[in-house]
Amino acid sequence: MTARPTIVLVHPEIPHNTGAVGRTCVALDMELVLIRPYGFTLSDRQLKRAGLDYWQHVRLSEYADWQAFLADRDPRSSQMFLFEEDAPRSFYEPDYPEDAILVFGSETRGLPPAIRDAYRECEVSLPMRSAHIRSLNLANTVTAAAYQALRGKF
Question: Which pTM value belongs to this model?
């Protein structure tokens, strides 16, 4: 099987966002990794509703915390892409490897400072033209990032 990017949600809070991200992962044959704690349970009705009947097909991995994820996966910094609205580099700039790891923080707080500090050179953002908005919806951001990471690889 060809390597695909992996989507990582660190401390997701809103079940329907995670459900929609799972649906995108199924569509693009990507693994979804969830890092605890969550603001919901995986049996949450809203999560299942957003994921529709696709949720059963999500390739899902869960980790108790970020350190457990790092210990298990041992990612290279060259495959890590941390999405933050204030990152200085556009997500259009990198050449994403086939095994890219696309990392997103919670809806209200973003990524924890310790993660950002450890991977500053890996941060990217989605450009926004309007000064009237601070951030985009998590599920929309993940979808845009996933398609950008796969650009030219279909």
Answer: 0.94
